[in-house]
Design a protein that fits this description.
- With 210 residues, this protein is an alpha/beta fold.
- It has a single domain (2-50, 65-207), classed as 3-Layer(aba) Sandwich (Rossmann fold).
- 33% of the residues lie in helices and 31% in strands.
- The chain has helices at residues 9-19, 25-43, 81-90, 137-148, 163-173, 202-207, and strands spanning 2-5, 49-55, 60-66, 72-77, 95-96, 98-103, 110-116, 125-129, 132-133, 153-161, 179-185, 188-189, 195-196.
- Helix 2 (25-43) packs across helix 3 and helix 4 (137-148) packs parallel to helix 5 (163-173).
- The structure holds uracil.
Length: 210
């Protein structure tokens, strides 16, 4: 598992405002989108491209374009949805699939309640979006889902992670190669599975408590 923490003062600044309990939902939503665009920049460093010939007003040249098959972006519902716009902005030609996962608040185990993904993911580059890598349960389940459908190239993009969750994902992957791009690694998980200091419940802060 390759972990990259996108250590950049702009990211840390935006994260600080995001963490603040006084930041209202509309600002929180815009910040998640902005942070996502910055993290997407880091997360797509190895996006597959192919050569393309073009002619500038001055001369012919060869550039690159995003290769086929198109990358697949998979936000984990519901909080991952808040990250989608920021990612699509940077990778507009990607396709988008959805994975609905909720954790049982007592066992903290993830369950899949919705899925809209291509049956065959062979050769697809997949980008999983989940803002909070807490216990690692839902991210592991999502990654397993994609690997079982044939994906061989998976990058997870998360805003915050707990060290315990990172360790759990790594152990569950048994050496299978996956990249994780993060805004920050926080101190720890608390006894009810929240990241400390974290930012609270990302879904609630994005969308309210419904
Ligand atoms: N999910 C959240 O939204 N926040 C946490 O701190 C942990 C899991």
């Amino acid at each position: 598992m390759r972990v990259h923490v996108a250590d950049h003062p702009l990211i840390t600044h935006k994260l600080t405002v995001l963490r603040d309990e006084n930041t209202p939902s509309p600002v929180f939503r815009s910040l998640v989108e902005e942070l996502m665009t910055l993290l997407a920049y880091e997360g797509t460093r190895e996006v597959r491209v192919e050569p393309v010939d073009i002619v500038t007003p001055v001369a012919p040249t060869t550039g690159v374009r995003i290769a086929e098959p198109k990358p697949l972006i998979v936000p984990i519902l519901r909080a991952g949805l808040g990250m989608l716009e920021g990612m699509v902005k940077l990778l507009p030609s990607a396709e988008v699939g959805f994975l609905g996962m909720a954790r049982n608040e007592e066992t903290l185990e993830p369950t899949t309640y919705a899925e809209r993904l291509p049956d065959d993911l062979s050769g697809r580059q997949c980008f999983v979006l989940d803002p909070m890598l807490a216990t690692g349960g839902s991210l592991t389940a999502a990654i397993e889902f994609l690997l079982q459908r044939g994906a061989t190239d998976v990058t997870a993009i998360c805003i915050l992670a707990a060290p315990e969750g990172l360790k759990a994902v790594e152990e569950a992957l048994h050496g299978r190669e996956v990249s994780i791009v993060l805004g920050a690694v926080d101190e720890r998980l608390n006894e009810v599975g929240y990241i400390v200091p974290g930012l609270g419940d990302a879904g609630d802060r994005l969308y309210g408590t419904v």
